Structures are given as structure tokens and as C-alpha cells.
Amino acid sequence: MNKIDIGNKEITITSSKELYIYDKEANNRIYNIEKDVVLKVYHYNYDSNSKVVINLNHESAEVEYHYSTINYNDNNTSITVNHNIKNTISNIYNHGVNVLNNKLHFDICGIVPKNIENCICNQENQIINLTNGNSTILPKLLIDNYNVSSSHSAYIGKFKEDSLFYLMSRGISYDTAIKLLVSSLLINSGKDSEELNMFKENIENI
Amino acid sequence: MLEIDKINVITKDSKSKILKDLSLKINDGEIHAIMGPNGTGKSTLSKVIMGNYKYELTSGDIIFNNKSIINLSVDERAKLGIFLAMQDPTVIDGVTNSEFLKTATTELTNERINYFDFIKNIDKCLKDLELSEDMIHRSLNKGFSGGEKKKNEILQLKMLKPKFIILDEIDSGLDVDSLKIVCHNINDYLKENKDTSVLIITHYPRILEYINPDYVHIMTDGKITKSGNIELAFETEKNGYNGINDVRKKISNE
Ligand SMILES: Nc1ncnc2c1ncn2[C@@H]1O[C@H](COP(=O)(O)OP(=O)(O)OP(=O)(O)O)[C@@H](O)[C@H]1O
Ligand SMILES: [Mg+2]
Q1: What is the pTM of this model?
Q2: Residue A196 in domain
Q3: How far apart are the C-alpha atoms of B161 and A85, rounded to whole Å?
């Protein structure tokens, strides 16, 4: 899988690949995924609104979307996956950290219409409030077909006290423990890339 | 080394009283064991020594090397050399064992670590504990078997070199051979670090046959109700906690 750069636009993905994206201003992104193509996206967002639409237009199209965001201001993230044909797969992971008393909103939607068979449509959402931020997650699965495997989960809260206690009991300070936990939430599976390095810097400066 | 002076402890949420006027003194190089029924407050005691914020000390003091530590944060206590091997080590997904140990070592020593020495040291400790090498690249405690979790606590102990060690049911979840390995490692550590003190929390005297305690205490209902030597552990195993109480009642009635 090779790495390419995309701007703020609609793109059609014709061969399997991994994309790395770093945004620090509002963006609309539309992906059209072709037959037998597996697209993996690592999308890092720094404190901005984001709108993503993924169209699975051909059979055996598959998307794995890792969206990670750090926020200081009120921001919205909207991700919509359209399963436009049978035998398509989507796995969406949205992880956000809310640093201040701001409002972060996730609106995540998977759509499988009535006549579309044999799809897998999953989403997992998590927002961690580091202070007393106000966050909301609206996970939506609009599924009209019985022959679909789907799941969704949403967690909003703070890091678990037990995790902090464990890390600190080994001499790790509170601030460092928080950064370790933020990194593990936001860059869990991302491989080394320029975009990841920029994002790591944002984590370092929380 | 450690002096616990009449502490009373409640939980922050429910305000229920867990430790009641508990006192315990552990000198340099001593090994103490605490036994007691389920839910009597043994793990709570260990977490209170470590500074867990779920509990509130309503009175009493905890002195470590002549200084009160009750106002210190968890990491500050660790930096003084207090180490708690937990009964149920926490799973932290996404933080690898090696990243965790590197960070802890750096923060404890306040120096940049020498990676070459660090890796050599980890490799040796893994071998000593008969743990497989890939453990170090996995997320902290995630998917570890019960025994692997306990060995991983001892791996951290060997790497971080504490002065005061609390072992909260380190023996539970370990098979016969693993228990031997873990105890050998602890004994070797104690041989090399003669001033190190240990508090062993356990339900079974078997671990105490490997790591010989100077004192054995029985804890019931939030305080230490009886102290003795290793015989007390065997007696408890034979007669149960009620048995001990019956014997005590009989004595005090006579
Ligand atoms: N954070 C907490 N909130 C509420 N209750 C708690 C909390 N921590 C401990 N307790 C209660 O305090 C009591 C003592 O718990 P603790 O874990 O210290 O027992 P223990 O002696 O270690 O038992 P075991 O032998 O089963 O490990 C129990 O009744 C437990 O439910
Ligand atoms: Mg316990």
C-alpha cells in the first residue's frame, strides 16, 4: 500500500491504499471507493470542524477510517458512510480529546438501504474530556436490511482513575500519564508519517 | 522505613469506613505479612499507602523514612521508592509495556535512559522471570494471563528498584512453578538490596515458606487484630479466622 496526499476535495480511490491526513482547519472530504478496493485512512485533526462522506459504490469496497481529534474550541465532526451496494464493509473509529471546557460533537452515520445485502457496518466512538468539556456523540446506524452485521459504541468521559493510578504508582507524573493515555487513544494504530509527527507535537503540547 | 500510625480511612464516594485505627511499623529490611478474610481492607491499606485518591484519610499518619507522606501524590510516593504490586493489575490498551517502563524509568531517575543498557536489562529480567520477549511490545496487561500479569508486576519491580515493596496477593493466579520463580526473583532482589522492606498480603502460607516473614499479622474488620510469626499463618490456615477468634475469646474468658 502506498501513501498519497489529498487536498480538500472529492476523490475516487481506485486501488487499495493507506492515506494519512492532518487537518488544522475545517475540511470537507468525500471518498468514492471502487470495486475490490480497501482504503485505510488515518485522519488527524487539530481543533477544527470536519465533514467526511464515504461512498462504497462497488462490490467488495472496504473502508477502515481512524479519525482522531484534539480540541480546544467548539467543533463538530460528521462522518457518513453510504453502503451503496451489497458486500461492502466499513469500520469507523472516532476518538476525540476535549482539552478545555469546550463542546465537541460527533455525528457518525452508517447507512445501508433496504435492498443492499451482506454488509458489515461498524463504528466505535470515544471522547475524553480532560477538564469539564461538554461533548456529545450521535451514533446513527440507518440500516434497512436484515442481512447486515453492524455494531456501534459510544463513550464520553474522563480517563479511568485506575489507569492513572497504575501509571502514577510507577513514578509517572500526572501530566505525563495523561499524555501517555491521550497518545494511546489517538494514535493507537497509526504508522510513522509526517502527519503523525505533526499530530504528536500537538499531543506533546496539551 | 514505614510507620502507619492509627489511620482511619473512608471511601470518598460512599464514605464507608474501611480502615479503623490501624497501626503498623515496618523497619528497614523487615518482611511483614498480612492475612485476613475477604473484604477486610488489605488491598485498601496497600492503596492508601500508595496514595490512591479513591480513599480519604480521616485521621492518623503514614510516615516513610521519617517524613509524613499523606500529602504526597501517587507518583511522588513512587519516587521515594514505594512500589505496589497490585492484586489486579490494570489493563491499559495502547500503551506498550516497553513504552511504559521507559517512561517510568525516565521519570523515576530524572535522567535520559541509556537505551542499550535498558534493553539489556529488560531482556535479562524477562529471562529471569521466564516471560516471553513479546510481552514487552504488547499493550500493558492487555490479554495477559493471570500469571503473566503477576510476573509483569515483578518485572517492573526489578526494573524500577524500589525500597519498600507491597505484594498484594502476588501468589494468586500463579502456578506452582511460577510461584517459585517469582519468589526466587524477589529473594534475589532482597539479597542485593538488604535494606528493602516488604509487606506481603496473602491468603496462603505457601508464599511465606519461600519468602520468610519476620512478622505475620491478622487483619479483621479494618484493623490488625493479631501479630505473631510464621506459625500464626499456619495456624490460620488450619483453623480459619474464626478459629483464631475462638481461641482468642477462650483465652480472654479464662
Ligand atoms: N473504592 C471503593 N468504593 C467502595 N467500597 C470500597 C472501595 N474500595 C474498597 N471498598 C470496600 O472496602 C472493603 C475492603 O476492600 P479490600 O479490597 O481492601 O478488601 P481485601 O481485604 O483486599 O479483600 P480480598 O481478600 O478479597 O482481596 C470491601 O468491602 C470493599 O467492597
Ligand atoms: Mg485484596
Answers
A1: 0.87
A2: no
A3: 59
ipTM of the complex: 0.93
CA distances from B52 to A129, B71, B76 (A): 21, 11, 12
List CB contacts (< 8 A) between A181 and chain B. 92, 95
Nearest one of A78, A79, A76, A22 to A46, comparing CA atoms: A22
**In the block, which residue shows the cell 519468602?**
B211
Count of CA atoms in the C-beta half-sphere (13 A) of A68: 24
Q: Which residue has the cell 460528521?
A: A78
Q: How far apart, in whole angstroms, are the C-alpha atoms of residue B38 and residue B218?
A: 12
Q: Splitting chain B (254 residues) into consecutive groups of 10 residues, what average pLDDT does each group show?
A: 96 93 96 95 97 96 97 97 96 90 92 88 95 91 93 96 97 93 96 96 94 95 93 89 61 50
* Angstrom distance (rounded) from CA B61 to CA B71: 10
Cβ of residue B78 closer than 8 Å to a chain A Cβ:
yes
Q: How many domains does chain A have?
A: 1
Distance CA A39, CA B25 (A): 62
The hierarchical CATH code for the domain B2-253 is: 3.40.50.300
Tell me how close the Cα of B239 comes to any Cα of chain A, in angstroms. Answer: 36
Q: In this structure, are residues A161 and B53 in contact, taking their beta carbons and an 8 Å threshold?
A: yes
A187 part of a folded domain:
no
CA of B57 to nearest chain A CA: how many angstroms apart? 17
For A141, the domain range is 10-159
Specify if A169 maps to a domain. no
Is B75's CB within 8 Å of A180's CB?
A: no
- Best mutation target among B88, B90, B138 (most A Cβ atoms within 10 Å) is B90
List pocket residues of ligand 1, CB cut-off 6 Å. Answer: B 11, 13-14, 18, 36, 38-44, 54, 87
Task: Give the DSSP letter string of B126-168.
Answer: HHHTT--GGGGGSEETTT--HHHHHHHHHHHHHHH--SEEEEE
Closest approach atom of ligand 1 to CA B41: 18
